[in-house]
Amino acid sequence: MDKIKIAIIGVGNCASSLIQGIHYYKNKNSEDAIGLMHWDIGGYKPEDIEVVAAFDVDKRKVGKDVSSAIFARPNCTKVFYPDVPESGIIVSMGHKLDGVAPHMNDFDNEYTFVLAEKEPANVVNVLKESGAEILLNYLPVGSEEATKFYAQCALDAGVAFINNMPVFIASNPEWADKFQEKGIPIVGDDIKAQIGATITHRTLANLFKDRGVKLDHTYQINTGGNTDFLNMLNRTRLDSKKESKTEAVQSVLGERMDPHDIHIGPSDYVPWQEDNKVCFLRMEGKTFGDIPMNIELRLSVEDSPNSAGCVIDAIRCCKLGLERGISGPLTSISSYTMKHPPVQFTDDKAFKLVNDFIEGKLER
After folding, report:
1. How large is the average pLDDT for residues 159-184?
2. pTM of the complete model beyond 0.85
3. Residues 73 and 142 in one domain
């Protein structure tokens, strides 16, 4: 089969995990391929994904082969496949716009972005010349202007768009209509983890609802040491992130909670944690006879491989959308892999819908 040709905006930890994973699973089969939600999607396996273009603004990555750029600082995710071969794909200079928060300049270069002094590439031309079919957005949280710029580039170049961060594109009817009119699919918004804070919180909230337990109060507080958590120290960039994560939980409840009683969001940046994310979750409710109960949970995960486990499915489903001539939001894979999809389903329903889509039983 032909390769699925992807372009990547932001060669950070998430891109590193995805690219390592493409090569890691190359010599495996369905029996020993641990960590995948789907081994085969429409005939496509992980090794059938090929990076043909990449954009970044950090001088340690721009101008470098993607295979070495994914291991450059400030990336700090686990290296589980160190022997990624040279690809011949050189990282192009991206457009900064609002992609780098001013407070990032106050930290040591080891942990933050170091801007390259180069002219930005013509993104549309690079996409067209590379033959990219799908553009993946891995920009930092709060990059509203930059995300909309790259979404428009995808439209202008005629490539599909997978929006892995919480600026609402696929779930915004105005943007969704643009991709519909252009005749290309879009998946989004804000990537979930395979087993992360949001999916765990959703599952427990749904369990409370199904077992007749009234959820009175809940919080989810996260800490981490990657550039994502450093970037989110600027609370002004968090509005869409908090909305995305909160709505992911609210959407599975039978009755929406008062905003006073639900708190979901990042807490702090802990440098030595690097790409490890720790979630502290508490849920308080009442069972039979109005008797109080509570759950406290501590979850520790490597943040970026966790997201790559979902993105690798989103890419392959998006390719099926291209092959089938589907335009606009792909609602099944979006609800399965994203926190803020155009249509929210419970996770078990989303799992069924995406399998129906893969098998061709569902249009989108």
Report:
1. 98
2. yes
3. yes
